[in-house]
Amino acid sequence: MKQVKRTFTEEQLTDVANHLLKDNPNKRIFAFYGKMGVGKTTLIKALCQTLGVTDIAGSPTFSIVNQYLTEDGESIFHFDFYRMKKEEEAYDIGYEEYFFSGNYCFIEWPEKIQALLPQGCVEVSLEEHQSVREIKY
Amino acid sequence: METYILGIESSCDDTSAAVLRDNKILANVIANQEVHKFYGGVVPELASRAHQQNIIPVIHKALDAAKIHKNQLHAVAFTNGPGLLGSLLVGASFAKSFSMALGIPLIEVNHMHAHILAHFIEDPQQPQKPEFPFLCLTVSGGHTQIVLVKNHFQMEVIGQTIDDAAGETFDKAAKIMGLPYPGGPLIDKLAKKGNPHAIPFPHPKIPELNFSFSGLKTSVLYYLRDQLKKNPQYIEENKEDISASVQYTIIEILMNKLRKAAQQTGIRHVAIAGGVSANSGLRQTMLQEQEQSGWKVYIPKFEYSTDNAAMIAMAGYYKFQEGDFAHQQVTPYTRYSD
Question: Does a structural domain hold residue B335?
Fold first, then answer.
């Protein structure tokens, strides 16, 4: 059940990212649900920044998975399953290696691989309400 | 002495093998349905399992088409990154074992450098090759970079996207319009019949030579949603104008930074590379710039602009001449900067 619900503007993005991580201190896998253009990539960029990523966090729509390094040398994986047609394609990229690595995994378009999401994965939904966004997790 | 290089590319969706004799292509094969028809197999669309099925047939076909025997090869060059790890591993593992079996050098190639070096493949229609130093705008589904190319080996990324890639923006705008994926080429086609100034989409304000495209994606989304409320047929009735305006905006975002880079560096030799360099609007704009600003513009042949192994073999050829070989322990990387 989703317990946290708040609305935010672009200026409050860093704040929201901080809360999302603090509210889920032992979680490493986060799935982001929401329509195209709602700000999934933008929120993940803010999360990466909060975690000290030094690379530019871009969109992995084409590459399926981007790997970023933090200042401490930790890897963070950013997925986008938008282009996937079948769940088997996730097996083909060896998704288990990433999901069970213990590293942070931020997943866009998780609906495409719903059955493969590990237990305990944080499901985050984003919606657009006029000029603000609503986050639930 | 003539040098024969085998190039192997498996960084993303396509498996490709090519044979070059010096800078001349003897064969450039990309795995698609036809290769599979030939070998009686089926192709999954994506990823490493498909690469595993493709790699041997594709290499066979390339050697056959080049009419050479594998023992004539001087080196094996392969894409070592950036790309999808599972996919890269297939090409890397094959290249390592093949070079070891043949007792010839192994050469690792950076996929993004290879896109740029594709300009040096011999092409009778474009005998003039870029002069160093030159600027290269590398634009594809996954990348958008301005690269300062100092020589065949030294390349510096001086600008890049901070979010979506240019090719991705084409595809996503097409998706919003209800066109099939990948929609970039369809937008290009529709744009030819539309007015590029019909819809003034906003331009991002991003410092330095970097790009941003996610704002444009969002404004296309909201603009069309608002119009559809007033007229449910809006997209159908205006798809040419929408395509032309989206394409114009993407190209202007790219060109503004490219012009700025040319101004800052004082370099007038400018090339484009990557899959989006096939876009006719971008090609035309580059040629106009040549007329107006006195740039010397280099546009690659379409077949060398998308992912292909000929460019990998070309990059391999330059490394071969330098004796820059890889060890068997070399491992693929997913990030550009590794």
Answer: no
Total domains, chain B = 2
Complex prediction ipTM = 0.70
Q: Is A21 on the interface with B (CB under 8 A)?
A: no
Q: Which chain B residues contact residue A45 at CB under 8 A?
A: 163
Q: Please say whether the dihedral angle defined by the alpha carbons of residues B245, B246, B249 and B252, taken in this order, is positive or negative.
A: negative
> B212-234: per-residue pLDDT in tens?
999 999 999 999 999 999 999 99
Q: Given this model, what pLDDT does residue B13 score?
A: 78
> The tokens of B47 are what?
């990823």
Residue B333 lies in a domain: no
Q: How many CB atoms lie within 10 A of CB B337?
A: 10
Residues in B 46-75 with any Cβ partner in A closer than 8 A: 46-50
Look-up: residue for tokens 């490394």? B319
How far CA B154 is from CA of A36, A45, B117, B188, B262, in Å, comes to 38, 30, 11, 33, 18
Q: Does residue B45 have a pLDDT over 50?
A: no
CA distance B117 to B111: 10
Domains and CATH numbers, chain A: 14-130 (3.40.50.300)
Same domain for B149 and B110, yes or no, is no
Residue span of the structural domain in which B246 resides: 129-299
B50 and A92 within 8 Å at the Cβ level: the answer is: yes
Q: Judge if B104 and B174 occupy the same domain.
A: no
Residues B80, B332: contact at Cβ < 8 Å?
yes
